[in-house]
Amino acid sequence: MRNTAVVAVALLLLAGCSAGEQTESDEAAPERSQGAATAGTAAPDERLTVIGDADPVASAAATSRVLFARADVAVVARDGDLAGELLGASAAAGLGVPLLLEPAEGSGDVLAEELDRLGTTTVLAVGEATAEGAGPEVVAVAAEPGAVERATGLDLGDADEVAGDSAVAAVAALDPEEPVALVPEDGSSGGGGGDGRLPDVDRPEPLTGTLVVTTGSPESLAGAATARAAGARVVVTGTDDPRASTELVELLAEEQPDAVVALGADLAAADGLDWKLATAATGTQLPGGGQLLFPGRMMVALYGYPGSGALGLLGEQDVPGAVDRARQYAADYEPLVDRPVVPAFEIIATVASEFPGTDGNYSTESDVEELRPWVEAAGEAGIYVVLDLQPGRTDFVTQAELYRPLLELPNVGLALDPEWRLRPDQVHLTQIGSVDVEEVNRVVTWLADLTRENALPQKLLVLHQFRLDMIPGRERLDTSRDELAVLVHADGQGPQGSKQATWQNLRAGAPPVWWGWKNFIDEDQPMLTPQETVTQVVPVPDLVSYQ
Questions:
Q1: Tens-place pLDDT, residues 123-165
Q2: Is the pTM value of this prediction over 0.70?
Q3: Among 37, 14, 22, which Cα is nearest to 176's?
Q4: Helical packing angle, 273-281 and 246-255, nearest 10°
Q5: Residue 233: closest CA among 210, 262, 258, 250
Q6: CATH of range 299-546; options 3.90.25, 3.20.20, 3.30.1390, 3.30.70
Q7: CATH 3.20.20 location in the chain
Q8: Which tens digit of pLDDT belongs to each residue from 415-454?
Q9: β-strand partners of 78
Q10: Which of 75, 58, 67, 64 is nearest to 19 (CA)?
Q11: Which of 212, 416, 422, 496 could form a disulfide with 227 if both were Cys (CB 3.0 to 4.6 A apart)?
């Protein structure tokens, strides 16, 4: 299984460079110690390693344990001293050694134990840090760029001011070949120190095959610095789901790292991190980019049956004509919303019938190969496809299984039409059908399992509804499967007042789902324009379809 993660900041590849190769001020810097210090990296043993410590001190030590086997020199800052942590990160990355933290109060056992494991003989204590009782010799410096440069021999260049909420991203982007002085935006600095000087440090072998992923949570700052010092790439996701970013999916597909380290308590608490990373690593993207459907896009769909205009707009033209028309309808929404608009087909795959048919289920099932040209043409054109089921007297899972070959494609989702789900004694157009939520939840499980087993991007599951009694027990709808985006589609037609009442009734007390709205060309009185759809339907629908 290929594990990977996400990107939200520009990343630079590590080019090995020792502290002894950095520019040094002949007048300001004390004489160097004799002999060079060394450090040794250690690639993670597992394809995925999770560092879930919420305590920054413990998180820093854990990252050091995962990525470094030894380090004669280490950098220490005090937890909560942002100036010390930022400049400590600059120093650690430039030297190629871990950045550890000492607690603001309480025992320093975690720090002392990690320094002992590393075999550290000299500590650079930056800012408020003292490293008292830790064991090694301490070179203390103020959290000021010049002080760090004199103690390390690094040329940190012009200071780069960093806001607190972007500190981890700034550290993740550090380039060890040309480190910069990271300082707080408010200009604060602190700590003291003399004219001590660290020994030269021979940079360790870089971990170019290791990727460290963090959401940017504050406790991950020191760990991110240690990762950059070790030559690992660090990416900041901003989310605990690695499928969420187009840039990330592209990066993972291109790089395919040997090992991934998930750094941060939020990532450690995320469900399914392993399979989400594996899915992201495939590089497969949805129309519109990324691997999650919403809230990153709006869909505008043509609804109907291929080859027949009687059931909606989709079948009023051939495949190329439908592609062009879907794009045109989607384009009308692009200037109206602040998210990408993706054209879509909603294809009626099984059609409710007035006759029982040879199987007695009052539903006519389209052959997979008849639908395939529509689905494949849509995929090539960047159009999402939803297969709509009108199952009659059979169940939704049984019919969905017929279309597994199409649903195994990344741009194909599923729609359930309870209006056409009959009990054994019912017929279409005499009764309005319904489906128990337990049957819907079986579809949720079936489709989510299919999605995960095939490492596919998130799939759309649409539930058509215009009356509450069409899905009894809807409050028990399973929305827990992250493989799916579950959407309730309001299918009411007629006067706009009635449609708005249906919209409000469906939304009241609903489980956490996305929302869709249908515009009927002939039946609505009047049909809303695109402008009216996004201003009068509140909240703005995630899916708008036309029938």
A1: 999 999 998 877 899 999 999 999 999 999 999 988 999 998 9
A2: yes
A3: 14
A4: 70
A5: 210
A6: 3.20.20
A7: 299-546
A8: 999 999 978 887 776 778 899 999 999 999 999 999 999 9
A9: 102
A10: 75
A11: 212
